[in-house]
Amino acid sequence: MVVSITEQKQILQSCLSAIKHQSNLMKQCLNENNILQALKHCSNFLNELRTNQLTPKQYYELYIAVFDSLETLSNHLLNSHNLKQHKLEKRQAALDSTSTSDKNADDKSTTHKNVKNGDEISKNAVGKSATTPFLADLYELVQYSGNIVPRLYMMIVIGTTYMSTKGAPGKEIMKDMIEMCRGVQHPIRGLFLRYYLSQRTKHLLPFSNANDFNDTVEFLISNFIEMNKLWVRLQHQGHSSERELRYRERKELKILVGSNLVRLSQVIDDYNGDETYSSIKYYQDKVFPTITEQIIQCRDHLAQSYLIDVLIQIFPDDFHFATLDSLLSDVFLNLHPLLKKSELVATLIERFITYHKFESDMSTSEIKELSLESDEKQKKIKTTIDSTQLFNSFWKFYLKLYELDPQLPSEEHSELLQSFIRLSLTYDPNNYQNLDVVYKFATEKEGQIKANAENDDIWLQLLIVPIRHFDSIKTLFKLPFFHEFYLKLSNKQHQKQISLEIINKLLGITTYGDEDGNTVQEIHEPETFTTTEEVDGIFKYLLVLIKDSDKQNSTSKNLGVTKSITINKGENVISHEFLSNQEKICKVIHLIENPSDPFKNLSNLMYARKKYLNKNFDNIIYTYPTLISRILYKLKIVGYANLRQQKKKKNTEASQDLMITSNFKNLSIIIDELYQYHAEFNSELILKIYLNAASVADQLKQESICYELYTQCFIVYEENLILGSSSYQQHINPHDSLAGGSLQYQSIIHVANKLVSARYFNKENYENLITKLTLYGSKLLKKQDQCRAVYSCSHLWWWCELLIEHGEKSPTVQPEAAKEKSAKENIQKDEDQSSRDREEADDEEDEIELYRDAKRVLECLQKSLRVADSCMDPYLSLKLFVEILNQCLIFNIYGNALADSRYINGLIDLIRTNIDNLRDDDNNAKTDAADEEDDKEARLFKQSVGYFERTLSYIRDQQEVENRFEGIVV
Amino acid sequence: MSGRKKTLLKVIILGDSGVGKTSLMQQFVNNKFSHQYKATIGADFLTKEISIDGNKQVTLQIWDTAGQERFQSLGVAFYRGADCCVLCYDVTNEKSLNNLTSWKDEFLVQSNVSNPQDFPFIIIGNKIDVDEAKKIPSLQKKLQNITNNQLGGLNYPVFETSAKDGINVEAAFEVIAKMALQQEELNDANGNDVSDDYNDAINIHLESESSGCAC
After folding, report:
1. What angle do CA B35, B107, B36 make, to 5 degrees?
2. Is residue B1, in this structure, part of any structural domain at all?
3. Measured between CB atoms, does B38 come within 8 Å of chain A?
4. What does the pLDDT read at residue B186?
């Protein structure tokens, strides 16, 4: 019979109103104490439950409505029973007033008698108002009801009410009711009827002694078995086209069947029994075998999966521990072959995990308070859970399962193994053997099972779970098969995912979705890696990221989907994700740390590069800078320590020195490699890296290394920067002396900046370098660049400070003055020092020797003046003059005799003349309309004049305050 | 009392899985508490008779429900006719607190009560026996926020209980009973008499019983 949904709704509504109507009528009759009529109405509304046109959910609505009404009936019956009882007792008491003391003793028998003679007595007692038969009679009476569904419902409501009265033959009624229920074999009606039976009897079940208890359990089990049969049978009713529908209906009905097990669990809990009774044992011996046998034998997929789920959920953990082996190997293995065992196992294991957490909470927080209780509990924990055995039970089950069903899908394997891992991690977090067993098995078998790469993602979780769980990522090192299994993943994306997971863990970033779906990040203190083995252990998981190439990202598929970053002047596109991965690798490089042995640390860093980082030359540009700066940092530490030692002990540890030198050489090789592959787009960066290395080498007195590094800088400059188009694509303002300038100019300034603080070159080398640099400067393309580069370079000839420790002499200056103190440097000194000046620094007591060459300074200044003068733009010329003036002032302050007042005065005059000339031009031009171009020039002019005025006022101030600049005419 | 019929009050306990609904009910009805967690399958009730204000006897029918949806396959028809609804959360579980609103909404939609605006709800925060450190930080503020913004600014009574130690459980159910009684009396006043005027048109339906199956 097919009924449309709207029809069903109509039917439901009319049924509900019929029930409401009839139940109101029933209540009216009850108020009038007309029980027979009330029962008639009751039967009427119960008839509604005979429908078979409704879905289980709708039927449930009817059931609830009926249930409520029957509850009213039951209450009324109970009340009037009690009332009568009361009156009867009074009468009884009046009749045989001989003794009140034995009344209690007789109570049982009297009640029984009363029940039998109820009708008669009630007529006598209540008389005219109504005929209220006693419950036993009513129980008999309703048996004559025409239809079986109403009949049985009424029977149950009266029977259970009867049972709740004192002295009722409870067990007989129970037996009778459960037998009678067999009469309804229509699945839905039968299920609800039996559900009603179980709901009504739940607080009446007798279990005061072992006998009663057994009967009760039997009652519940038999109800369960019958309901399960009805439930399973429903599947096979009706046309085969309705199979899906039936399946859905059955799914809805499942809780009715499950409720029996719930009751059973409650009863077992509630029964105290005698001393020999143990609820676990009872469950194990009686309940478990019967129930599971039923579950296995019904051979129904839905029934089995649901009932096992319920079984796991509603019986306490102790029970499951006790029956675990049997549950796994006798039950799980015998279930429907298509049933997903993994789900059941997962449920069971989740339960155990929750239990474990709870128990450990309990034992930490409450043991002291509840000493008695917890003692007991502890004993329980010890007796029930042996973690190794627990794992072994599951493992045994797994092997058997695999043996029985070698065709088990990969999903199942993966899910099962995941559950086992979770279990092992919870119960036995330090037992890595279990985990390795899992991974070993997975590794060996994955080859056989694996059909294609798609399966990979099933295995992915298997690897991710422990990563998230471990406190320390180093735990992974103890699992050799973890890596092997990792390598078996054929999908690189998945390997990447795991690697990222490891990195995140490593960096102390825990990301997880919280319950509301937000991602929460927690940052922990990351761990460091001190040994080569550890470096190996971790970098082998990073290799996939190191090798990762992001080229495919530029395909149209990804365009617009992923945000991308343009690199290499638009020739390449990379994703944010890729960049962030590379960044993470860099962060891991930072974790290679060994404070106690810096040389070991250095060799680890080198090792990481040699074995891992250089596996994809495209990517070294992202990782090498970090690596290099780490190496430099470490070199600095060992270098300084070495120098200090040398100074203290005098005797040089040549070996250390040598090690440092060789490390520098290796470092140089690394930078070379970077240069080799990335010269085209990243020369600037590489130049800076060389410069940094050179500057450190100088500080560590590695002169020859340092010299070579500077030479490398010049090579980079000549090969790639001198012609390289500027990366500063935007318009350069020639007047801007700070931010402006071409890439070439900037490079020269960078080198000059480092060279100006270099102190450990011998004179020849130093002069070679600075001469060369100045030469580069003078050959720059643009006048202003030339001018500025040259005047900047002029400072290289005029040291202002020593920058090294007191008592040390720079090898750059004449060794003759250095005497024994600084004799340790065996560097050939240039004997020619005619141009060297010695000056006292401002506040120094000692005479400090500084490298100074006034003549060369002046040459440079003259050169820049010439260049400035040759500028076509008079405003720019003027600006440059003022800039040069400022340089001269610095030299003057630091005692350059050639930049004397006469020279400076000359420069000031020159500037003044220029200003006057320009002002005249300007005034002439004023007659024209002041268009924008004029304005701009005027502004530049004003700026330069202002700059000049400020310089002059500075001179004046200094003359007054510091007694400087004597003889300069302002 | 014998002259009057006993009042039956239906109370529904709702809340997320694991907040302790069953425990609360067990503690109130049977004074029992078990550490073992058993999921509730479907819905079930316990009854308890109490006297309100010392003179009025009522029977509380307390429905304990499954917090996990998969154990509620038959729907929630038993919400119908409820006189009071108890919304439970766990003071250590912020999600359960945030879900109160959806439980309330779900209840109002499904129960079809006549006065959703004034229907009596009560809020119970269970598990106050646990360590302070495990509790939701700034709980009061969050709770207030929820009652003000999401539960319609209505002043539902709030109780903090421990089903384990039996703290405040009795008191909470006393209030529940009072509120339920009020609701029941309100329903009696407008509802029950009206249905007495019910016409007999429905009897047509009764005649069709022969078409059904004979069982």
Report:
1. 10
2. no
3. yes
4. 86
Q: Which residue of A has its CA nearest to B95?
A: A515
For tokens 């209840």, the residue is B107
In terms of pLDDT, which residue wins out, A656 or A956?
A: A956
In a domain, A103, yes or no: no
Q: How many domains does chain A have?
A: 7
Burial zone of A805 (CB within 10 Å; 0-12 exposed, 13-18 middle, 19+ buried): exposed
Kindly state whether residues A693 and A808 are assigned to the same domain. Answer: no
Number of folded domains that form chain B: 1
- What single string gives the DSSP state of each residue in A355-394? HHHHHHHHHHHTTTTTHHHHHHHHHHHHHH--HHHHHHHH
The answer, for B209 touching chain A at a CB cutoff of 8 Å, is: yes
Let me know whether A164 and A183 are in one domain.
Answer: no
The two three-digit tokens of residue A546, written as one number: 């190191």
pLDDT digit string (tens) for A648-680?
Answer: 776 656 778 888 889 999 999 999 999 988 887
List of chain B residues whose C-beta atoms are within 8 Å of the C-beta of residue A354: 37
**What pLDDT does B103 receive?**
92
> In terms of residue numbers, what domain contains A909?
880-970
Under the banding of pLDDT at 50, 70 and 90, the label for residue A796 is: very high
Phi–psi pair at A572, nearest 5 degrees: -140, 155
Which run of H or E residues covers position B126?
A: strand B121-126
Domain boundary among A870, A900, A935: A870
Q: Which residue has the tokens 């075998």?
A: A289
Same domain, A921 and A890: yes
| pLDDT (tens digit per residue) in A291-326 | 999 999 999 999 999 999 999 999 988 899 999 999
DSSP A746-769: HHHHHHHHHHTT---S-HHHHHHH
Interface touch A314/B95, C-beta < 8 Å: no
Instruction: Flag whether residue B1 sits within 8 Å of chain A, measured between CB atoms.
Output: no
Quote the tokens at residue A309.
Answer: 């789920």
Angle between helices A743-755 and A654-699 (to 10 degrees): 130
With CA atoms as reference, report the closest residue to A712 among A761, A673, A764, A660.
A673
* A122 and A72 together in one domain: yes
CATH code of the domain in which B69 resides: 3.40.50.300
Residues A450 and A582 grouped into a single domain: no
Mind telling me how many Å the CA of B74 is from chain A's nearest CA? 5
Same domain, A523 and A587: yes
pLDDT of A47 higher than 90: yes
For residue B129, the distance in angstroms to the closest alpha carbon of chain A comes to 11
Say whether the ipTM exceeds 0.85. yes
Using alpha carbons only, give the angle A89, A92, A95 rounded to the nearest 5 degrees.
155
Closest CA to A628 of A662, A661, A658, A663: A663
- Pair A397, A423 in one domain: yes
